[in-house]
Each structure stands twice: as C-alpha cells, then as structure tokens.
Amino acid sequence: MSKPYGTRKPQRPLIPPEEERSHGSSSGISDDLRYGQIVIVAARWMLVLSAFVLLLYRSDKINELVFGVVGLLGIAVANFWLHTKILRKQCVEPEWVYLASGADIAVISLMTWLQGGIWGRVFPYYYPAVLCYALVFQSGITMFFTGTVVAAYAVLAAMSSPPMQAGDDQVLMARLLAIAGVAFVAGRYRLVEEGRRARIQNAQHALHQAIEERETLTT
Question: What pTM was computed for the model?
Fold first, then answer.
C-alpha cells in the first residue's frame, strides 16, 4: 500500500520563520521602524508642503518668513535624502530617523515661538508629527519624544507674546492632553499590530515544524 503523502511533496511556507526573524534582528532595526519609515517620509512631505503654503500666505513678519523657509528647506533636504535611500532599498540607521523626527519638532516649535507661543497658527502640525513617530518608534522612544513636545510647548506657551490671559491655561492644558492622547492611541495601535504579527509568525513557525516532521516520517 502506498503511503498517503508519498507522491506529494508538501509545500513549504513562503517565508520560513527563522529567515524572517534573522532578517529583522541582524540589522538591529524593528519591523515597525523598517517598514514604517516610508510612512514618516510621506507624512513629512505633506507637512513641508502645507507649512510652506501657510507660511507664504499668512506670514506677518520678515524674520518669521526667513526662519520658517530655511527650516522647511532643511527638513525637505533631509527628507529627500531619506526618501532616496528607502526607494533604493538601502538600510537607514535608526539614529537618522530619530534625528529627522526631532528636527520636525524643532522647526514646529521654532515657528510656534516666532508666532507668539500659544497664539501660533502652526500648533496643529504637532499632531501629525506625534502620530507618525508614535506609530513607528518603540514605546520608550515615543515617551521621550512626546515628553519633549509637551515640555517644549508648555515653555513656549509660558513665553507667549502677548502673555496668556485668564482661561488660556485651560486651552493650554487641553492641547497638551491632546498631544499625549495622540501619542498614547498611536502607540497602543502599534502594540496591537505588533502582537498580531507575532501571532502570525508563531503560526508560520508551528506550520513549518509540522511540515518538516511529516516529511521526516514519510521518507
């Protein structure tokens, strides 16, 4: 009697779990950061274009225009360099990605200061910047960046010109809580997605082992 699977060669998984894990760990870069870099780059292009249009359309002071244009051009050049490396499938070191996100926050903070602190019109740009890095960076780095953003905006609001009036402290608190909330929700989503991918890899690993055991028994 012929064996049930003697004439049929079982198919192997498309990506062996060992190969996938070694690929992610050999470079020291997490899957979220490796595959999420293009998300940050695309969002940064949108931020640069929209901020540039807003700057040219609503700038009231020459120093605001000059510093804003120089800062946006610097971000655009750095983002172009990162984008070309991603398109050429070259490895981008995590430090460069962290530095670029830090530059985004620095330029937004600079524009906020030039526009009078809490009265600045570029405050909403903090939200997409926080959302992008919270979806990609590890929890500890996300907490560090978010704490930096919250502290920086609180200091800028305290230095507002003209100074804050009665009731503005509630507006400030609401904005700071909104920034922290965006980071928390995005970070939580990243953890959920990371757990889902881990379960898929474990299932592939179990299937791979089962197929190898069946091949051993049938030979």
Answer: 0.71
